[in-house]
Specification:
By secondary structure, the chain is an alpha+beta fold. It is built from five helices and ten strands. The strands form two sheets. The protein has an eight-stranded mixed beta sheet. The chain has a two-stranded antiparallel ribbon with strand order 7-8. Strand 5, helix 3 and strand 6 form a beta-alpha-beta unit. Helix 2 packs across helix 5. The longest helix has 42 residues.
């Protein structure tokens, strides 16, 4: 009888332990599920793609729209938003530059002190002279900058950042300058150490970019 009683007590105790383990496991699964739901809900409001680890840039040398050197050192000490386009662009570039201007306006209204340096790097160095680039970017915002360089310098820089573009010949071939360039509209965000931290893909929205940045 004693052995049977002990056996029953053991079985009951074992059942209680098993039930407790199941309850704890279920609770952990529920908490993980709830956390994932919260994370997914938060991600709905994030427009940027953030890198797991900031990516440093190799040394480069371009020329800004004031004729001064634009290098890795030029990106130190402040945030930089960089867009790759060209001044003859019929639609994508003006649209994105306008959104970037609206983003700056929104950040100022939010009283964000560390507003980013906005830089457009040309993918059309043959036509985009320093003077033309200066006039173009300042038309959108006096604080915007542009950068150009030799064809080799631009190709090296864009290749490192994975920027894809392709020159497309126009139907009218009377002049070699009559061409378009198909390109992506990604905006790159660099931290004050000059490291790639995040990027924004099209379609762009000034409010979303400003919210993610702030």
């Amino acid at each position: 009888m004693v052995e049977r009683s002990q056996g029953r007590i053991y079985q009951q105790g074992l059942a209680i332990v098993v039930i407790a383990i199941i309850a704890i496991s279920a609770g952990m699964i529920f908490q993980q599920w709830r956390a994932q739901c919260v994370a997914n809900e938060l991600l709905k409001n994030i427009d940027a793609t953030f890198l797991a680890a900031p990516r440093p840039l190799n040394a480069f040398k371009l020329t800004d729209d004031l004729g001064e050197p634009f290098t890795t050192e030029s990106m130190q000490g402040h945030w930089t938003m960089m867009f790759f386009g060209f001044t003859h662009c019929p639609y994508i570039c003006p649209t994105i530059m306008n959104e970037l201007n609206n983003m700056v306006i929104k950040l100022k209204s939010l009283h964000v002190k560390a507003t980013p340096q906005v830089m457009m790097v040309t993918i059309d160095p043959e036509r985009d002279t320093v003077k033309r680039l200066n006039t173009y970017v300042k038309n959108f915002n006096p604080s915007f900058y542009g950068a150009t360089g030799s064809k080799a310098q631009i190709e090296k820089f864009t290749k490192e950042l994975g920027i894809v573009y392709m020159r497309v010949s126009a139907t009218d071939t009377k002049t070699n300058n009559n061409y378009n360039i198909e390109h992506s509209g990604a905006i790159m965000l660099f931290n004050p150490r000059g490291e790639l931290t995040a990027f924004f893909t099209m379609p762009h929205n000034a409010l979303k970019i400003a919210t993610d940045y702030s």
